Amino acid sequence: MQYVSTRGQAPVLGFEDVLLAGLARDGGLYVPQSWPQFSKDDIRTMRGLPYSEIAVRVMLPFLGGAIAEDDFRAIVKDAYASFDHAAVTPLVQLDQSNWVLELFHGPTLAFKDVALQLLGRLFDHVLAKRGERVTIVGATSGDTGSAAIEACRDRQNVDIFILHPKGRTSEVQRRQMTSVLSDNVHNIALHGTFDDCQDLVKAMFNDVAFRDRMGLSAVNSINWARIMAQIVYYFTAAVALGAPDRKVAFTVPTGNFGNVYAAYGARAMGLPIEKLVVGSNSNDILARFFASGTMSAAPVVPTLSPSMDIQISSNFERLLFDLLGRDGAAVTASMNRFRAEGKFEVTEAQLAEALAIFSGHRVDEAGTMATIEAVWTGCGYLLDPHTAVGVASAKAAGLPADVATVILATAHPAKFPDAVEKATGHRPDLPPRLSDLYVREERLSELPNELGAVQDFVAARARAAKEAA
Ligand SMILES: Cc1ncc(COP(=O)(O)O)c(C=O)c1O
Ligand SMILES: N[C@@H](CCOP(=O)(O)O)C(=O)O
Q1: CATH number for the domain including 345?
Q2: 306 lines ligand 2 (CB under 6 A)
Q3: Is residue 19 included in any domain, yes or no?
């Protein structure tokens, strides 16, 4: 299996290099040269298998032999042993046609754990084999940061720097990051938005001298391995509901477009999916794109679903690559235009191709609160605000009743207790292992939104860590 960049100019890489590379050297994102294929019979044979076994089957073709099957099986089993539900990502039925896929049973209570628990172990395996050390730089609007820190804390060959937008995460999200006091963990509270954080991370990768000197790697969904691991739960959920012999659709609360792109990948691998419903909060650039064919940035507004307060959805570039006929030069031109003018558009035919698979919906703050309240009253089930955007989007999509619709529950409601309590009068509790979170010591550094300041900080801390090692 080989991986190519969406911008067409970076070297073609195998799995190990793609895992460590993060962003491609031409500024693009890596995608598989071709998608592994699963027949309907292959999918039927997944019925009744445990999560980790389906995970091995789905992901093995992406490794291209880079890790022996038995070693990979052991890594996968170990990664998901840390989840507090035997099914890893259980389904909960809301009504006749709608199910919630709970992706929040990992250590940090968000869907990011599903990929990052695996990634931390893959980094260890590959770095130990190569005798290398990396400096991870990541951007978070709240959840990737804590999941990545939890997965990488105290790992010998890794220093991890996470940029979060100061004051724009929930308190639980911030504390989950900043209360990890391990020497290899460095939290940066940036004076800016998530998009600023993500821009700085990409700028560090695009500074080739800095990238090579520091040995940069990524934990955001620019890293192909993140997408690969997220593809798995689309298979497990669809198969549990009767696929490929039953119609299934997914609704995905969306920000950076990584999770829903993983669903697109599952579909490209042969999993029959009727529709992919993209749910946006008031930061609705994607909903506007699917309505018009124009991607046009607007200022980010803070919402009740802060992890989706994003205007520049990084992974959309991977979809665009396919919509533009896998033409790296055309993707580069669109992305350059987006950077210069804040917008680009696709043709009517390209939009129609996208709409054959996706639909996009916007849910405002009142709609988010009303959905949390209605599902609590109607089903006695607590939604977090991100998942509520998903549930409301599923309703707006109006899929036929014979389609089993799976809404991705991307975070535990206890990560956003204020919004949930306001909507339902019920304050969700953190699990006992996190019950002292509010009194734990925190450590973080505040930095301005300036590339030089962030690079100097990363270089100085990484040098000190290397000398201490
Ligand atoms: C709770 C939650 N829901 C939804 C999203 C959006 O997912 P994606 O960025 O993959 O579109 C995020 C952040 O990524 C998140 O943390
Ligand atoms: N919502 C995310 C933003 C980063 O997304 P990623 O999937 O690219 O890591 C977060 O919670 O940090």
Answers
A1: 3.40.50.1100
A2: no
A3: no
Could you tell me if residue 18 is inside a domain? no
Alpha carbon 152 to chain centroid, angstroms: 16
Q: What is the tens place of the pLDDT at every residue in 67-115? A: 999 999 999 999 999 899 999 999 999 999 999 999 999 999 999 999 9
Of ligand 1's listed atoms, the one at least distance from the Cα of 142 is 16
How many CB atoms lie under 10 A from the CB of residue 380? 8
What radius of gyration do the chain's Cα atoms show? 21
Please list every protein residue whose CB sits less than 6 Å from any atom of ligand 1. Answer: 110, 142-143, 221, 253-259, 307-308, 386, 410-411
> Both tokens of residue 84?
């507090």
What is d(CA 54, CA 432) in angstroms, rounded to the nearest whole number? 30
Task: Locate the ligand 2 atom nearest the alpha carbon of residue 142 and give its number.
Answer: 11
User: Known catalytic residues?
Assistant: 112
Query: Per the domain annotation, does 203 fall within a domain?
Result: no
Q: Is 253 near ligand 2, meaning CB less than 6 Å away?
A: no
CB of 143 within 8 A of CB of 110? yes
Q: What's the whole-model pTM score?
A: 0.97
The ipTM value here is 0.99
Range of the domain at 349: 91-109+227-424
